[in-house]
Each structure stands twice: as C-alpha cells, then as structure tokens.
Hints:
This protein has helices at residues 7-14, 65-90, 118-122, 184-196, 204-207, 236-244, 257-270, 299-308, 331-334, 364-373, 375-379, 385-399, 413-430, 449-454, 461-469, and strands at residues 28-32, 36-43, 56-62, 142-149, 158-168, 208-209, 226-231, 248-252, 281-287, 289-290, 295-296, 312-316, 344-348, 358-361, 458-459. It is 33% helix and 17% strand. The strands form 5 sheets. The protein has a 6-stranded mixed beta sheet, sandwiched between helices. The chain has a 3-stranded antiparallel beta sheet with strand order 1-2-3, with no helix packed on it. The chain is of the alpha/beta class and 476 residues long. Among the domains are: 133-172, no CATH class; 183-210 and 318-476, no CATH class. The longest helix has 26 residues, at 65-90. Pfam families: Aminotran_1_2.
Amino acid sequence: MTESAGNKNEDCHAANGVKPGRNGMVKNHHHHHHQYQKQEKVYHAACNGELYSRPFIESFEETPMLVAVLTYMGYGILTIFGYLRDFMREWKIEKCHIAREREEQKDFVPLYQDFENFYTRNLYMRIRDSWNRPICSVPGATFDLVERSSNDYNWTFEYTGRVVNDVINLGSYNYLGFAENTGACTTAAGEVTVKFGVGMASTRQEMGECLLVTVGFWEILGHKGCLILSDELNHASLVLGARLSGSTIRVFKHNNMQSLEKLLRDAIVHGQPRTHRPWKKILILVEGIYSMEGSIIRLPEVIALKKKYKAYLYLDEAHSIGALGPYGRGVVEYFGLDSKDVDVMMGTFTKSFGAAGGYIAGRKDLIDYLRTHSHSAIYATSMPLPVVEQIITSMKCIMGKDGTTIGGGGSVMLWGMFCAARVGPLIELHGRVNAKSESPSATCSSFPASMQDNAVCHTTKWVKQYLEAKNIEIMK
C-alpha cells in the first residue's frame, strides 16, 4: 500500500519535476535575505495509497551555519568553565550553593546526582533571570511581570515590589484566547463555581466522572512482549509512558516512512529478541503536531503502513486538536481521513480550550479497560466542574453552538481574533508585521467521532443532571 522507498517514490515525485531526498521527502532550498534557508517538503498522494489527494507542503527555516557554530562554541566554553568551577567548589575555593548530601548520610542512597545537575548549576543558572518569571495578571496577549533582582548571580531572587506592565506574551499555548478573565467561558465557569463549588473531593470511581486523563498513559496498556515504534521527536510524556510500560521500544527517524516501514518489517520477520516469537502487539506512537518543530505527522502514510502490517496506532493530538482541520478536529480531519483508523486518540484541554486535563478516544472496550485500570481513574481526584464548564463553553463557541458566528462552519474568525490579539501589540511595537496567509484554520467542532461514540461516562445522578442540563449526551 505504501512504498515510500525505491523507484516508485522517485517516479511519483519525478512527475512533479523534483527529486526526493534520502528520507523520501522532497527538498527545495531557497535563500532568504542571504542569511537563512527555507526547506520545503512536498508529499504527494500518488505514493500514499490515495489516502490524501492534495500536496502536503511544509516549510522550515534552517539554522544558519554561523549561528550553529557560535552556539556550539558557547556551550563548549561554558562546559569547560563549568568543570573548572566544580573543581573550585570541591576544594572550597568557591562557595557552593547547590543541594548536596550531608556527610553523615553518605552511606545512604544518594538523593542528588551531582553530574546530572551540571547543566543546571553551570549553564542554566547564568540565564535563570530570563526564565520562570512570575506574572501577576491574566496570561493573555500581554501580561504583567513581577520585577525581581539577584545579588548572587541568579541563585536567589528578591522582589523589588515593582511591576512590569504589558509585556508581550509569546510563550503561552492559549491558542484561541479562551483562557481569559472575561468572556462567555469565564462567566459560565464562575456561575458553576457558585452553584457547585470548586472541587469534587473524590475519585472518579467513587463519585463518577468522564474519563479525562493526562498524557503518557500507555504504561497501563503495553507490557512485556509488546513493541512500541516511537517517533524520535515524541514528547517526553509519551517517552516516559512507553518506558514505564515495560514494552520494547524502537525509535524511527522523524516523519520518515522508510525508517518506520523498515522497523515494522523487521519486527514481523524477526519477532522478539532471542525467542523470535511474534510480538503480542506492535504500536506506532506519533504526535499530530510536533510543537518544538511545528512539523505535521504524515498521517496518511502512517495509517497505510499500520494497515499493511496490522499494527496499532496511537495519535497524540495535544497541539493539533483545535488548530488543524476545517472544523478544528485535528490532524485526522486535516487530511480527510477516518478517525476509526486511529486506535487510540489522545487530546488535551489545556491548549485550544484554555482549561485543564485531556481525553482518550477509542473503542468502548478500550475506554472500559482504562476506567478500571488507570491510576488516574482510581486514585486521582475528579476534574473540577468549573474546569468542565470551561471546556464545554469553549467547545460550544468553537462549534458555533453558542448563538454566535465566531465558530463552526469552517470559519477562521476565532483564529483571526486570536492572531489580532497576539499580533496587535507586535504591530504597535515594531510598526509592521509579516504574516503568511496560509495559516491553518483554528476552529474546531468537538471530540473526534470515536470519542463521541465510545468515551462512555459513568456518572452519579448529580453529575448526570449537570451534564444533561448542558445538553451533553451520556452514552451507556
């Protein structure tokens, strides 16, 4: 179904007048202001089993050679001076501010690994004043910072009592601007707080709640004898969950279908190490959008390989839900694919919805298994109803079911409003701004179809009445 390597791929791209690179991606280099290079990657459906009918274009700005060389030189110099300062601290020449083991506890298992803190104490500490800045306002397009100063080279800070106002916020993932202190979401959440209180004060299995979990839960599904094929740029939470599962983990190159297919083929042919028994399960672990790179998963080809080799697919849509697709349903809708082809679909409410928590979508038997075996369902406190109301209200707004026209129907008004709120201060500061017209639509409709069908909620009468009052259907 998918032959991303070999002559077929070359023939497909040759029809478009370009030649693929080593990883099956088409590379077209351009110079920008004689300093930067932009790399464009075009993927065509003819090579993907006709799962996607449009060219797939991604543009990345390559790091200039001078910037890369100077960065590595800076790290090297700081590392050398770091070892020198550690030597001076060891001989009491320089005062040591870091946490260390007490002499009388040296026979115990160490709490602190000295070498693991090398980066923190020698590199990060030099620029610590630029990070972890305390804010004292709503984290909107701009916010207020609490001013602080340090007299010991950023080891400790003192607050000066002054506030830095209207600092431009470029570090938030409040993508659609719902995490504000005004608007329909805030009003609805406030009313629910007054009526129902802040917290549930019980676990999900005691009082009932929809299955809303955090990322990295794969440790309860995988086990010994299972194989996880993980993209090399997957988020740390996915990596941690995979490690906790006890499954064998093999990493394929980012968005490289040739690398993924080779691992799948080897897994089928050779089986488990030593015994060569077939793997109990083979799981492909990918993200919709890779937040640090801005890269979109080549989902049509991943699904084609998944079907060809009869593997399972786990899709983390933490950054793509609400930001991709005509209705914001994520990367599956962006490519026009069927959500049933994704076995496990995860998303978060912390970004586009401006709330907290997340969801897992899949078959009913999967959701039932998670409800009875997940640690968060058994031990963690249920999601507070004001947070639930924030999610419901923002989702209705995105779907266009709140009585307004700012969401739903493929409208990009939400995205435009958010961009105006974020870019406005930049325009005022710089006088001009460069923007591309090909921004993905940031409107979304609701949970993926598989979640609507199978994320069954086991609720008490009290929670059931609350959800029914909000026209939320409870599947049984």
